[in-house]
Amino acid sequence: MFVAFVGCFAAGTLPSRGEEPALSEAVVRAAAALREKALAGTHAFEILKSLTVEVGSRFAGSMGDAAAVAWGLRTLKKLGLSNVHSEAVKVPRWVRGPASGEILRPYAHPLALVSLGGSVSTAPEGIEAEVIEVASLEALKAVQPEAVRGKIVFFNQKTERARDGSGYGKAVDVRSRGAIHASQAGAVAVLIRSIGTDQNRLPHTGGMWYDDKVPKISAAALSNPDADLLAAEIASGQPVSVRLRISNRELGQAESANVVGEIPGREHPEEIVLLAAHLDSWDLGPGALDDGAGCAIVIETARLIAEVAEKPRRTIRVVLFANEEFGLSGAKAYAKAHEAELARHIAATEADFGAARVWRFRSRVAPEKLAAADAIAKLLAPLGVARGDNRTHGGADLIPLRAARVPLFSLMQDGSHYFDVHHTANDTLDKADPKDLDQNVAAYATFAYCAAEMNGGFGEAPPFPQKKQ
Ligand SMILES: [Zn+2]
Fold first, then answer.
1. By CB atoms within 10 Å of each CB, which of 340, 384, 413, 462 scores lowest?
2. 128 is catalytic
3. CB of 372 within 8 A of CB of 454?
4. 438 C-alpha to center of ligand 1: Å?
């Protein structure tokens, strides 16, 4: 067993007696000092405030998106990062128009709803049809096509509140793929219960996709109370009819950009620790939590480390990705443009889960490098951060790095309230707490500094299981 194990690795990668620890005492001391400095107060909230006030919503390809790229460039320069530049990215341009809906019978009510991102329009006079309620894509498959044909499919599945955000993952497929499945069954439109944990009347938008093999049908999200109302009418046993009017536009492609800034490494500038966030937001609000907070956290982390007298050995690179929300355009463009250096990305993490405190540290490193990740976890423990498993998926913008086996890390934020405002008009600055952001910066700075300074790297990340289709 042991012999076979050794055979898997190049000579020199197995730990041996007398090998240097991943983190020297000096690095541990410097990282702890950075952590305490961040806890005492950072500029993260001011950076977030600047983005939400000076730019606001910044959906891919919009004027706000262009303003955000300009904001990113001037902010990274002003805060002392090096090699600050933009990298052009083409993004799809979808423009939201008016959307309205009402229950016509048995009991008439207006409905609070928004188009899902990417939805096609209805005819100008709207669509009027009976509604059929199902809980999930699986439940829809179990319904006879005759019962669906010509109807509006209402996906009524509640999003569970969970600290780790797992409720979102369980519910989101009806948003992203519901229109494909409903169209396959002959439906004329889709309504979903918002993928969100609040009970107010602001519906949650989000990306949805079509399949060229079936007609494109309109899709909208109801606020949770409106979904309750519609469900109550359906539960009365009488046929329920709804009218929907949706008007959106597709304008082909537009220009956007990833914004990049660095702290060049003093010894191994070619080796990179990637700190990611996404600069775009949805169009309904200023995206303070999604993902203004992530931008502020990684920018402030880099600024803080840039102030340290001796720069870290490796390069810390901040990338504010374009268009995460509507197709990962920036992440795909980055992986392509930087393909030759992906093997030298020794660690990557993305802040994209709001502004609440970090509570768990997950990794995806080579099994023989777990001790290095554990050593960083020890330094995070005083922040109330527990060591998680070695199976993190990283953030959405890190998906294109998976094939290159880049080691991934997640400083998981408490997601208990994130999905109350996610992708709504309510995702505003007041939802972020300055002290919580400081704790985030403390965690990110500890992690990034250690990863950029440590002896040896994290090896190759274990591969992801092949997706079954
Ligand atoms: Zn996001």
1. 340
2. no
3. yes
4. 20
**In the numeric block, which tokens belong to residue 63?**
């004027």
Are 33 and 448 in contact by the 8 Å Cβ rule? The answer is no
- Residue positions counted in the chain: 469
Contacts of 47 (CB under 8 A, 6+ apart): 75, 295, 296, 299, 300
Compute the distance from residue 352 Cα to the ligand 1 centre, in Å: 5
Q: Looking at the predicted structure, is the pLDDT value of residue 414 above 60? A: yes
Question: How far does the centroid of ligand 1 lie from the alpha carbon of residue 123, in Å?
Answer: 32
Report the separation in Å between the CA atom of 341 and the middle of ligand 1, taken as the mean of its atom positions.
Answer: 25
For residue 437, CA distances in Å to 87, 294, 296, 348 come to 28, 9, 8, 20
State in Å, rounded, how far the first CA of the chain is from the last one: 34
**Which residue do the tokens 């939802």 mark?**
431
Lowest mean pLDDT among 15-19, 323-327, 411-415: 15-19
For the stretch 424-438, pLDDT in tens is: 999 999 999 999 999
User: How many whole angstroms from 204 Cα to the centroid of ligand 1?
Assistant: 13
In 389-443, which ranges are E strands?
408-413
For residues 303 and 43, the answer to whether their CB atoms sit within 8 Å is yes
Please list all protein residues whose beta carbon sits less than 5 angstroms from ligand 1, which is an ion: 290-291, 352
pTM across the whole model: 0.94
Radius of gyration of the chain (CA): 24
Active-site residue among 262, 271, 324, 453?
Answer: 324
Tokens representing residue 141 in the block: 């498959």
CB atoms within 10 A of CB 466: 6
Find out whether 324 and 456 touch, Cβ atoms under 8 Å. Answer: no
Find the 278 Cα to ligand 1 centroid distance in Å. 7
**Cα separation values, 358 from 47, 317, 383, 389, 443, Å:** 19, 21, 8, 15, 7
Distance 208 CA to ligand 1 centre (A): 15
Q: In what order do the strands lie in the sheet with 345-350?
A: 82-95, 249-263, 314-321, 268-278, 345-350, 408-413, 358-364, 386-387
